[in-house]
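Hi R.,

Here's the chain you asked about this morning:
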Amino acid sequence: MSAEEGRNRRLAGIAARLATLARNPALHGIAGVFVMKAAIILANFSLIMLAARVLDTDGFGVFSVLFAAAGLFAVIASLGQNVSIMRWWNEYTAAGDTATLKGSLIFSITTVLVGCAVVGTGFFAWKAYAYDWLLTTAVTLYMIALVIVTVSAHLVRTAIGVGIGDGFGNLMVSVPALLYLAVVFATGASGSATYVFFVFAAGGAACVVLHAILMRRKMRAILPDFASVRPRFHLAEWRARSFKLWVSSGLEAVNQYLDVIIISYLLSPAVAGAYFVTTRLANIFATVSDSMHMFSTRHIPGLYYRRQFGELNSLLNSVAIITLAVTVGGLAFVLVTGQFLLGIFNEEYVAYYPALAILCIGTAAVAAAGPSGSILMLTGHEGSYLRIVAASVLVRAIGFFALIPFFGIIGAVSATTISFILMTAMLRHSAKRLTGLDGSVFRLMGQRNRQAAGE
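And here is the predicted structure, written out as tokens:
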């Protein structure tokens, strides 16, 4: 065979593989989720940028702290139902057990409402000591709306689709507030964090109504006897599962939100605001990890409980390919444009570029883990996931109090990066050991090695 013929054969092989990828329905689904998630990231990025411009430095710092606190307590108030409700829907619909499905939905709805009442009351009492009652009321209403929207979005995601669930769930909360801030910025009027949180809450309430209507239609279509079936309850089992998932979700929320609150306490609200912006830019990789989480949790439980492991592994290969490509591209983009992006929020934030660069390494590591955490939670290994997240939170908290007093934000992002890398390694190892499924991008290396050995 001549060199030219060999080259032509290689090109033909590449073209064939690209054509196969183009016909892959999993990649089409992932691409759709990425587009939706990119729209959410853009909306949130614009909202935070306008808030930083409209509010003064201290005011934006207060907004950042309250936003983080509401997000943290919203996860606590959900009592683990955001993940539980997805698992139960897939498990009981696959088994054709409408009675138990109905009982589990009643259990989840009741649990969420109790969580909102108890945690919402405590949250209001806590924040009322430091802020005026109107701002505290607005933040509390936003926190409650966020709880219900998050749980309903998870249910709609798995029952109907990611776009209707998470797309509406995110955009209907953020876009109205974005429009309010845009009008304030354009007119030069005085902005108010109180109004922003009230608009957040109103958008969330509208989204809950929409989700309820869509789920009612879905259940009428696929479960025509749902209304007449007498619910069956497994309360002891559900409480045990929910507790583990609640603790895991709470620790995840601590990983995501508590750092802003701690930095506000150890340094100042203004510095906390700068850190908040830095984390949001580094979290461009959340476009990867969140998109993979949304897409994977839509499909993993059904394939797993139907024992369709060939399709499941094919799905995970597709997820890993896109995750790797977007993570590398995203890391390069943020490192190159980081100073410019920080300056868009506030010229004073450009000085935090080194912190942004360090934090990007950690968030890229989290993205590289892919849906490993989802695999553990949705296949009955939530206890292992809980221990991994707890270890990561502990490492991060120790790092905060050890490093922040000496190194400020650099110490904070260093502790975060170390904890994220550790968590990624543990998630991948546990998912492979307990389920035989590697959800990380490193599965591509194993696949390549197997192909080489076969050749």
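One quick note: Residues 18 and 24 are 10 Å apart (CA to CA).

Cheers,
M.
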